[in-house]
């Protein structure tokens, strides 16, 4: 019996959470006795354990001393920020609760609960799936891919709006690429007082960075073949 390949146009919640952890430069750590905002002071193991390297005078160090058995209940928050200038630039937040222990070189945070929060609400992430998931292959390149598309190819972004249903474009004053992953590109449609994201799936998931150009060309070719006008966002009237 042959292997059945299941196609998808969205990364799993576990993969999205691991991508956020892999690319975030900062995180907020909260214990019973305080909160620390750490910048450039964490790393993530292959199975999703977070290694923290806080300053010696931080609340985290005190929490380990004061907590019973040296394992304070801890909440770690990561924020995923869009690299292009759009409204509501925080695309996703990942909250992890768990326990914190000390090793010789760093603090070890083992998550016991993982929650993904985006525009669609909160989603609990299975711990085993979280441990086994890999970050998206485009996660580390996403920032430069999106900024290049927005800054150097605004005409291509306009062409891609042909792939969006006309009723979804009503009142839109600005369109920008807001996310890209192995399964597709997401455009942010901004109106005067609201916004919405529309996803344009690739015809086949990307396995590595070298395949992105072909997938984007395929989307653009599909858009140009449609007999639809290109959306040309208009500047909203001054109040």
Which terms would index this structure?
Split barrel-like, 2 domains, 33% strand, 239 residues, alpha+beta, Pnp Oxidase, Chain A, three-stranded antiparallel sheet, 11 strands, 6 helices, eight-stranded antiparallel sheet
List the helices and strands and how they pair.
Blueprint: H1 13-23, E1 26-31, E2 34-39, E3 42-44, E4 50-52, H2 59-66, E5 73-81, E6 90-102, E7 107-118, E8 121-125, H3 127-132, H4 142-152, H5 154-160, E9 174-181, E10 184-190, E11 195-201, H6 212-225
Antiparallel strand pairs: 1-2, 1-5, 3-4, 4-7, 5-6, 6-7, 7-8, 9-10, 10-11
Task: Characterise this structure.
By secondary structure, the protein is of the alpha+beta class. The protein folds into two domains: 13-132, Roll (Pnp Oxidase, Chain A); 142-225, PNP-oxidase-like (Split barrel-like, Alpha-Beta Barrel). 24% of the residues lie in helices and 33% in strands. The chain has helices spanning 13-23, 59-66, 127-132, 142-152, 154-160, 212-225; strands at residues 26-31, 34-39, 42-44, 50-52, 73-81, 90-102, 107-118, 121-125, 174-181, 184-190, 195-201. The strands form two sheets. Strands 1, 2, 3, 4, 5, 6, 7 and 8 form an eight-stranded antiparallel β-sheet that branches. A hairpin with a 2-residue loop joins strand 9 (174-181) and strand 10 (184-190). The chain starts with 12 loop residues before the first helix and ends in a 14-residue tail after the last helix. Residues 1-7 have low confidence and may be disordered.
